[in-house]
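Researcher: I'd like a candidate sequence for this fold, 377 residues long. If you have to choose between options at a position, lean toward the conservative one.
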């Protein structure tokens, strides 16, 4: 009988141990160096993929299935092995990354994201290398925004309060889709920005910028939204390439209506699609305009000169030694992040990228041919 009681006690102990090790709130193993084939990796716009995945250090880990519409859900696995909220109203796809993401998170007792890295607490962390991926794990929410016609690149964990995420709106070029720019947009997201990008390749006039920004601002006030109270609606930027660069200049002139934009970033812009030729001289926000020395769309530099001569607000204009398609180059990540951190996050250290004349970071970078200024504050 004594032996029987001992055997029963041992069996109960093993059973309790096994159950407790797999209970709710446990942290799943981190994914390192491999890609889960079940994940929605680099999902194309309009693909309609469901579920969620997050990016950390260029490795995409498939999350648990999530509904393709309506609200947020907890318990979706991130690449760091923790749980995190799914995004927006659309399905969620993972982003690719080519450098190590230092951000990490662990699951708390409820299965929700509990940030454990220093970057997730307090003010936005300082940046030593603007070209390096940020400390935050990111995700791409597809087919979301107004009419399901946008993708959003964002930190997997928003905030946390009282910290708020600035907004950037993106506009594509005529011949390019969001996927062509995803590394740049994900780079911004890894530093804390919520980037809304229209699927459209007909972006002239600035309407896609306005619709996307207005939607996010409204979501910030909607109590059921994952963005509720977590967006900095006083820190809004607009950026775009080619035709989208022209659209960004249009949006910076409050076309087709005010959006609250406080900084713009047109890359290799084309103005021939814009019907209103006065937009350059009616800017409402500082502009960082990037041009390319071998841009076949502007071979003589006429567009660059038109922007420089007509600008009525602070303008930093820099010529990259390259071609029109270099808007997708990794070389764009550092200066574009610095511009938005300067104007949307109050990062005074980023100013050294652009000022002073002749000794600024861009001025001394051999990859850039010319940096010139207008209406310097």
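Model: Candidate sequence:
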């Amino acid at each position: 009988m004594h032996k029987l009681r001992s055997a029963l006690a041992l069996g109960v102990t093993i059973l309790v141990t096994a159950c407790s090790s797999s209970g709710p709130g446990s942290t799943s193993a981190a994914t390192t160096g491999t890609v889960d084939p079940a994940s929605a990796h680099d999902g194309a716009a309009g693909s309609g993929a469901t579920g969620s995945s997050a990016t950390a250090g260029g490795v995409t880990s498939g999350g648990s299935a999530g509904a393709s519409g309506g609200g947020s859900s907890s318990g979706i696995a991130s690449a760091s092995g923790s749980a995190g909220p799914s995004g927006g109203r659309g399905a969620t796809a993972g982003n690719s990354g080519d450098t190590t993401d230092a951000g990490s998170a662990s699951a708390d007792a409820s299965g929700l994201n509990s940030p454990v890295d220093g970057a997730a607490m307090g003010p936005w962390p300082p940046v030593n290398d603007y070209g390096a991926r940020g400390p935050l794990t990111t995700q791409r929410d597809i087919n979301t925004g107004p009419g399901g016609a946008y993708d959003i690149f964002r930190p997997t964990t928003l905030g946390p309060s009282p910290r708020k995420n600035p907004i950037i709106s993106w506009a594509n070029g005529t011949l390019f889709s969001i996927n062509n720019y995803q590394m740049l947009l994900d780079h911004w997201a890894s530093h804390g920005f919520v980037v809304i990008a229209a699927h459209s390749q007909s972006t002239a006039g600035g309407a896609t910028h306005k619709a996307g920004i207005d939607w996010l601002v409204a979501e910030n006030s909607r109590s059921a939204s994952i963005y509720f109270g977590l967006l900095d609606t006083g820190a809004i930027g607009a950026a775009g390439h080619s035709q989208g660069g022209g659209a960004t200049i249009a949006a910076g002139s409050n076309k087709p209506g005010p959006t609250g934009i406080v900084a713009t970033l047109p890359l290799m812009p084309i103005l021939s699609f814009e019907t209103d030729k006065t937009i350059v001289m009616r800017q409402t926000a500082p502009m960082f305009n990037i041009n390319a020395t071998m841009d076949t769309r502007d071979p003589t530099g006429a567009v660059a000169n038109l922007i420089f001569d007509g600008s009525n607000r602070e303008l930093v204009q820099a010529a990259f030694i390259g071609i029109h398609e270099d808007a997708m180059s990794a070389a764009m990540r550092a200066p574009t992040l610095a511009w938005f951190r300067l104007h949307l996050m109050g990062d005074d250290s980023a100013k050294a990228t652009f000022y002073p004349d002749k000794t600024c970071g861009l001025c001394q970078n051999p990859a850039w041919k010319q940096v010139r200024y207008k209406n310097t504050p």
